[in-house]
Amino acid sequence: MGSGITQQAPSQQANVTITNQHKVVSNPVHGLVHSQYMKNMKKYGEQPSGAQLVQSLIHGNEHYRKNELYADQRDQTKSGQTPSFIIVSCSDSRCSVPLLFNRPHLGAIFEIKSAGNCLDATGIESIKYAIEHIEPPPKLIVVMGHTKCGAVTACYNSICQEKHHKLRMEFPSILNTIMEPTRHNIEKFGTGNKDKVLAEISEDNAKKQAQKVQFVFDEVLEKYGISVYAGMYDIDTGDVKFLKITDPDPKNDMTKQELEEMAKEAKQESSSGEK
Ligand SMILES: [Zn+2]
User: Fold this and answer.
1) Domains (ranges, CATH) in the chain?
2) What is the pLDDT of residues 117-169, one digit of tens each?
3) Which parts of the sequence bind Zn(2+) (predicted)?
């Protein structure tokens, strides 16, 4: 076993397709690689096999290894990591945290991922690890929800269709976590505007998980001066809004309005930079 899996083409026939993939994954425009690859596969009327997908990853990795920018970053981080952020977000493939905060750098973000950005024991222990074993510890923890979240939608649908007992059997931890904000927002807003209710549930869930972090690490946050925020990512616009949960530094005690103003300024800066 071991090395064979990464180096051998699965079959002669598959090799032909892999040759096509070579063209695609050799594209220097990284962001287009995956979507072009999938389009190509569709064009040939194929579903990629596991081995073909592994092959595409090998080529992606080759690009990464040869990119001098990342070679420098590997060099800078090879003796350890000092990320400033711990970000808990949904496993949804559209929630690519380093991309959406313009930080595609090695060592920038300590990431924790789970469906519905639910924090179970493993997630909490991951945060504990980062706080206690990274020197200096990251100074900001964000739990970020997002619009159009599949986990939230499944929970919402199961309650509306009274099928939550079935879902509870299949996904007990996720459902237990999201159930309360779902019920609360259905009671508050009804079921008339589904998108709005789903977004409210996601936001409440992110807040609830961020409050859990605050509760569990209370004194540790104070000791190391670590702030906790909830975040909400809009899949359509790309916008992330933040809500303060705790910030031990009084001079950072920004109100919601101040945060919004800061976000507005950042937008203005970036749009004037684009011109
Ligand atoms: Zn999600």
Assistant:
1) 4-66 (no CATH), 82-256 (3.40.1050.10)
2) 999 999 999 999 999 999 999 999 999 999 999 999 999 998 888 877 777 77
3) 90, 92, 146, 149
Extended beta strands in the chain, E state: 85-90, 109-114, 140-146, 227-233, 240-246
Q: Maximum Cα–Cα distance for the chain, whole Å? A: 65
Distance 95 CA to ligand 1 centre (A): 8
Any known ligand binding at 146?
Answer: yes
Q: Say how far apart CA 27 and CA 36 lie, in whole Å.
A: 9
Question: Measuring CA to CA, which residue among 78, 146, 73, 147 is closest to residue 113?
Answer: 146
pLDDT in tens, 34-44: 677 677 777 76
**DSSP conformational letter for 171:** S
27 CA distance to ligand 1 centroid (A)?
30
- Centre of ligand 1 from the C-alpha of residue 10, in Å: 34
Task: Tell how far the Cα of 97 is from the centroid of ligand 1, in angstroms.
Answer: 13
Distance 146 CA to ligand 1 centre (A): 6
Residue 59 assigned ligand-binding role = no
* Residue 22 annotated in ligand binding: no
- Give 202: exposed, middle or buried? Use CB within 10 Å, 0-12, 13-18, 19+: buried
CA of 118 from ligand 1 middle (Å) equals 10
Beta bridge mates, 229: 142, 244
Cβ-based neighbour number of residue 210 at 10 Å? 26
pTM of the entire structure? 0.78
